[in-house]
Amino acid sequence: MTRKKQFKAESKRLLDLMINSIYTNKEIFLRELLSNASDASDKLYFKSLQDTDIKISKNDLQIRVDVDTENRQLIIHDRGIGMNKEELETYLGTIAKSDSHAFKEALSDDEANPVDIIGQFGVGFYSAFMVSSKIEVISKAYGHNDAYRFESNGLDGYRISEAEREHHGTTIICTIKESTDEEDYDQFLEPFTLTSLIKTYSDYIPYPIIMKTEEDKEETINSMVPLWKRSKSDVSKEQLNDFYKEKFNDFEDPLKTIQMKVEGVPSFDALLYIPKHVPHNFYSTVYEPGLQLYSRGVFIMDRNKDLIPEHFRFVQGLVDSPDLSLNISREILQHDRQLKVISNRIERRIQRELETMMKNDRDEYEKLWTNFGSSIKYGIYSSFGMNKEKLQDLLLFNSSTTNQLTSLSEYVERMKENQEEIYFISGESIAKCEISPQAEFVRSKGYEVLYLIDEIDEFVLQVMMNYDEKNFKSVNQGDLDLIDDETKEAIEKKTESSKDLLSSLKEHLSHKVDDVKLSSRLVSHPVCLVSDEGLSFEMEKVLNALPENDETMKAQRILEINPDHELLQALNSMYEKNPDTLKDYADILYDQACLIEGLPIEDPVEFSKKIANLMIETSK
Ligand code: ADP
Ligand code: MG
Predict the structure, then answer these.
(1) CA-CA distance, 84 to 198, in Å (whole number)?
(2) Atom of ligand 1 nearest to the CA of 126
(3) Full-model pTM
(4) Does residue 507 sit in the same domain as residue 448?
(5) Which of 120, 139, 298, 379 is least surrounded by Cβ atoms within 10 Å, i.e. has the fewest?
C-alpha cells in the first residue's frame, strides 16, 4: 500500500497561490509541460555527449501529445532522462525545487557545452493544476529498471507508487477539469486548440512534438529550429519573407529585413521587418507597437514595447535572448536593464540601416519615409530634441531647388558660400509654398528654401533649433537680413517719407497687427504678413486646431508693404487726398495679406463689400 503524503505546509500555500495568481493565462500550462519534456530530453542528450556508452541521437527524442476525450485526459510523453522515485518526490513533491536550475548552475562554467535548459524556478509543473483536477506522472529514469507513478489532485497531497513503463522517460496524464460557465476547459482536449497553442508557445522546442490530428494522421506540429537561430547563409530571402507574412499577417513582402546576432551581455538574436505599406490600423489606437519576445526559443510575450523606441514603432519582428531574467511565471521580466541594452542595440542598428538605405537605396527609403516618416519626426518633437542627434539625418523635406525630397545634409552641401541659415517656409502644399511672396524673395537671392508641408515639420525644426550649427530660419518671420546697405538706406528713406501714411495705417489696424512697415523681403507682391520671432502662423493654425486648446493662440503680426510697388505711391497720394477712405484700403490690405498666408479673414462679407465699393469707385 502506498501512503498518501502531504505537501509541506508552505508548499500547500504556495500551490494555492500559484494556481490562483501567478499565471494570468491558463493556457501556458502546456508550454510549461512541453518545456519540461524538452529539458528532460536535453539532459539525456547532453549525457550521451559526455558518455560514449550512451547511444542516443536527437532524432530518438520525440515528444508526443495525445488526447483521450472519453476520459478527459491530455497526455504528454517524452523519452528524456526521466525521474527515479527520489526525484519524483523531490522535484514534484516540493514546490520550487528544480533540478533544471541546479543542472544549469553546474554547467555554467562549461563553455564548450552550452545547453538550452528552459526551466529554472521549479514551479512550471504545477501550472498544470490550473486546468487539471488530477495529474498522474509515470516516469522511468534513464538506466533504471523501475518506473514510478506520482499522483496528485493538487490540493491535499500526492502519492508515489510503483508503475510499469517500457522506456525511460516521462508521461504526464492530466485529467482536464469540467468546463464551467466562466471557464472553458474543454478546449484543452481539442486538437485544434492544442495545435495552435503548441505553435504559439512551443514552436521552437528543438525536438519534434507529435500529435494525432483530426484526420487521425500523426504530424509534427512544431517547426523546431527558429529561422532566426539559423546562420544567415542558410536562410533564403524568400523564407524570411514568408515567415514575416505568416507571423505578422501581411499580404506583401516587407520593404526591408534586418537580422541581428549579438554575442554579449545579454546575447540575443533579432529578426526585424519594415513593412512595405502602412498597416491598416497604424494610426488608430488599436495599433500596438512592440516586438515579440522569446527566451531560448520559448515564446514569452507579444508586442513588448520596451524593445523598440516609439520613433521606430513601425518596425515589426522578434527578439530571442537566453539571458533574460524572467519572473516566475515567465510572463514578465524581473527588471528591464537587459531589455534596455537590447533595445538600444536594436535602435542603433535600425538607425544605421535607415541611413545606409537613404544613401544607397533612395527610392526604397523614400517609400519608407512617405509611410512612416511622421513617426520619426514625432520622435524628435516629443523628446524635446533629445533624439535629435539620432534622427536628424533620417529627415527628408521638399525644397525649392529640387523636385525630390532632400535631407538636411544635402541642403547644407548646396548652401551658398555666405549663407548662414537654413531657410524654410510652411504651407499646406508645395504649390502654396511656391507662391508665397516671402519665399519668392529668398529664392530670388539665390537661396534654397525648404517647403514644410506637414503640420509637425515646423515644430520639429523648432525643437532641433539648428542642424550642423546652422540655425533654421523661417522666411516669414523676424528679420531676414538679406539686403545690402544701399537697399537698406533706400528703404529707410522711403519709410521716412511715408511716415504719416504708415502710422495712420498702423493706428487704424492697431487691433489686428502689431506693426506696419515697409518690407525688405518682397519682390513682386504688394503686401505680406509676417510674424515676429516665436510663434509662427503655421504653428498658430495647428495649435488652435488642437481640441484641448480653447484659448486662441496668436502669432505677432506685422503687415509689410513693398516699398518698390506702385501701390505705395497710390496709398500715399490717397492719404494726402482723403485720409478717411484710406481706412477701407487698410482693411483690404490686411485681409489680402491674411489670404496669402492661408489665414482666415475675420469678416468675409465686409471684405467683399469693400472690394465691390472699390470697383464702383474706380468706374466713376
Ligand atoms: P523547472 O522546469 O523550472 O525546473 P518545474 O516545476 O517545471 O520547474 O519542474 C520541476 C522539476 O521537475 C524539473 O526541474 C525537473 O527536474 C523535473 N521534471 C519535470 N518534468 C519532467 C520531465 N518531463 N522529465 C524529467 N524531469 C522532469
Ligand atoms: Mg519547467
Answers:
(1) 28
(2) 6
(3) 0.76
(4) no
(5) 120
